[in-house]
Design a protein that fits this description.
It is built from three helices and 32 strands. The chain has 473 residues and is mainly beta. A hairpin with a 6-residue loop joins strand 6 and strand 7. The longest helix is centred in the N-terminal third of the chain and has 16 residues.
């Protein structure tokens, strides 16, 4: 683009052309590498947790682990080219030539795109991994692919996670009585975990909005707790403790029954709670006195993984338990936002959906199709929200118990749990070579996936597991 601009000017201003071409040659010869830079890590650097988001450490509800991080927050350096400062002033006609002025301005604002040498090797360069300018976020590069990195070690079994304000929140399940059921926080750039709140039962789901942190508690009647969704301010719970705002409950005749939570999601003004007894409850946000929750949908077949936006709420009917080996009882369904929904709209008669993610245009999900020699095999699917069955795409087959899934504007990312892999594909379909493998580990059990602008995060669901991260492809 720079050469084309200079050639257009050349016929009118020879001296200016020579000056510009000389500068362009100088820029071309520079060894200029822009993008994510690699930095040394201070062993005693403080963790980059936003202190305004951490609760006060009180023995009753918060147990602080070591709040020191083993790494700095990921840094991004921007380069700029100010061509106007280094050029000699060319003679001009008495009458102003606006095209020359425009050309000078265009040269000065050349985009600072990554520039790599023609013979650059992208095989093992963590700043240019697989292609020029593709950085690995302080992780290694091997075989032209960024390598995964441990963000934080969990004390229990981590399950669900979310990213907010450069921090990671996750719920963890007690492991052998040596670690608590808890909501945890760590800096997304890496660092040790801190307990946000100890839970009376297994945590199941976590989410945020601009002001509040939400988590779910599920389990069975052996736990002396009320199942459902709780919330606290992001800055920390008050002395009154968490507030139960989305109970997992139902009525059987005239009897009030507690149900087990099977997923929730929040929008700017609504909390949706899915329960194992077949209800999709709707609760107002912010919470009102008395809860204000109502059953938006009932009679569902094990609804789970609800996701909502301004266009409506979508969920997975998981169907019969996997242990029954009946893999044709599930579906993906949707309803318009806010209000009762006596007749949900079926989107796809999925085999046995597990988890899903939505965008304004697409829905993607994981599903189980068979039990082969004790392994749950399945697929990863994608379709248009407004015409799902007519635009159904199979992103991947022969997955070994595919679980959590997330999506950005162009790609889907999911955890193939029993295979120990995290994979990705364009939403519209994988290339002929199949999904891109982002991480693989014989010892790993990736469960849920979350995203920010530059990275993919997941929970490694083993005792003493970890929160992992890898740069997006």
């Amino acid at each position: 683009m720079l050469t084309a601009k200079i050639r257009r000017i050349a016929s009118r201003k020879r001296l200016l052309t020579a000056t510009l071409l000389g500068t362009a040659a100088t820029l071309t010869g520079c060894d200029l590498f822009l993008g994510i830079q690699q930095h040394s890590v201070a062993a005693d650097a403080s963790a980059a947790v936003d202190s305004s988001r951490l609760p006060d450490a009180t023995p009753s509800d918060v147990r602080a682990v070591d709040a020191k991080s083993s790494m700095d927050a990921t840094k991004h350096d921007a380069g700029s080219i100010d061509a106007g400062k280094d050029h000699a002033t060319a003679p001009v006609d008495a009458s102003p030539d606006t095209s020359v002025v425009d050309a000078q301005r265009d040269v000065a604002i050349v985009d600072a795109a990554p520039v790599c040498a023609p013979d650059a090797d992208f095989t093992n360069d963590p700043a240019n991994c697989g292609r020029c300018g593709h950085g690995c976020l302080e992780a290694g590069c091997a075989a032209s692919a960024c390598q995964p990195k441990v963000v934080s070690i969990a004390t229990g079994i981590p399950n669900f996670l979310t990213i907010a304000d450069s921090n990671i929140y996750w719920t963890q399940i007690s492991s052998g009585g040596t670690s608590p059921n808890a909501v945890m926080i760590a800096p997304a750039a890496g660092g040790n975990a801190v307990v946000v709140h100890l839970l009376a039962g297994p945590g199941w789901g976590v989410g945020t909005d601009t002001e509040r942190l939400y988590w779910g508690i599920t389990g069975n009647n052996n736990y002396n707790t009320l199942f459902g969704v709780y919330q606290c301010p992001l800055a920390g719970c008050t002395d009154a403790g968490p507030q139960l705002i989305g109970p997992a409950d139902y009525y059987q005749g005239s009897s009030f029954k507690w149900d087990s939570l099977d997923g929730f999601t929040v929008t700017s003004d609504v909390l949706y709670v899915a329960t194992q007894q077949g209800f999709l409850n709707e609760c107002p946000l912010p919470p009102v006195d008395g809860g204000g929750c109502k059953a938006a949908v009932s009679g569902l077949n094990s609804p789970a993984s609800p996701r909502a936006d301004d266009a409506g709420v979508v969920w997975a009917n998981q169907g019969n338990p996997l242990s029954q080996n009946q893999f044709n009882t599930g579906s993906i369904e949707t309803c318009s936002p806010s209000g009762s929904c006596p007749t949900p709209t079926p989107m796809d008669p999925s085999i046995q959906p597990q988890f899903l993610a939505i965008s304004p245009t697409y829905v993607v999900w994981t599903e189980v199709t068979a039990n082969t020699s004790g392994h749950y095999l399945g697929n990863v699917m994608s379709c248009l929200r407004n015409a799902c069955e007519e635009n159904l795409v199979t992103l991947a087959t022969n997955q070994v118990f595919p679980q959590g899934i997330a999506m950005d504007k162009t790609r889907a990312y999911w955890a193939d749990q029993s295979a120990g892999t995290v994979l990705s594909c364009p939403i519209g379909g994988c290339p002929d070579g199949g999904p891109t493998v982002l991480s693989t580990s014989d010892a790993g059990m990736p469960f849920q996936v979350a995203l920010d602008d530059s990275a993919v995060y997941w929970t490694n669901q083993v005792p003493g597991g970890a929160i992992m991260r890898v740069a997006k492809p």
